[in-house]
Design a protein that fits this description.
Structural class: alpha/beta
Number of domains: 1
Strand content: 5-15%
CATH architecture: 3-Layer(aba) Sandwich
Number of helices: 8
Number of strands: 5
Shape: globular
CATH superfamily: 5'-nuclease
Helix content: 55-70%
Order of helices and strands: HEHHEHHEHHEHE
Low-confidence stretches: none
Oligomer: single chain
Mean pLDDT: 94
Radius of gyration: 15 Å
CATH topology: Rossmann fold
């Protein structure tokens, strides 16, 4: 079966990657591993630019270290992170994230996810998100699965 980029990814030409995507990609036992691998192939074939934040990088490395092993975290930091554009949020982004976090009491929203929303909605012009986290859809973001 030939794999091609999803129309959403192809038309955007870029995507924002979340911790849940990275974790599923690197953990063969994760229930979303096959979907993450398919998305990674679509990204490679379509030459889609992938963005993330330092906060997601930090959260992912920590999760990999705690749930898998130090080697998985190291692989992520050394082999994968250089392939992405890591956005450094500014003070306005952080303030927007805190406001969203405080306002969305009905969601079990992490501050990292609120910051991701701030980045996607301002710096990335609503780029589709690579996430298996239900909060991304609940915040109204487009999610590629």
């Amino acid at each position: 079966m030939e794999i091609s980029p999803s129309p959403v990814l192809e038309s955007a030409g870029r995507a924002f990657a979340d911790t849940s995507y990275f974790f599923a990609l690197l953990n063969a036992r994760d229930p979303d591993h096959a979907a993450a691998m398919r998305i990674a192939q679509q990204i490679a074939i379509g030459q889609i630019a992938v963005f993330t934040t330092w906060d997601v990088v930090s959260e992912t490395a920590t999760l990999l270290r705690y749930r898998l092993a130090h080697g998985a975290a190291a692989q992520f930091l050394i082999r994968l992170v250089p392939d992405f554009t890591v956005i450094q949020p500014d003070e306005d982004d952080r303030i927007a994230a805190i406001r969203l976090f405080l306002r969305k009491r009905d969601l079990k929203l992490s501050l990292c996810d609120a910051l991701s929303y701030a980045i996607v909605s301002t710096h990335l012009e609503w780029a589709p998100c690579l996430s298996f986290d239900a909060d991304f859809r609940a915040m109204g973001l487009t999610v590629v699965r």
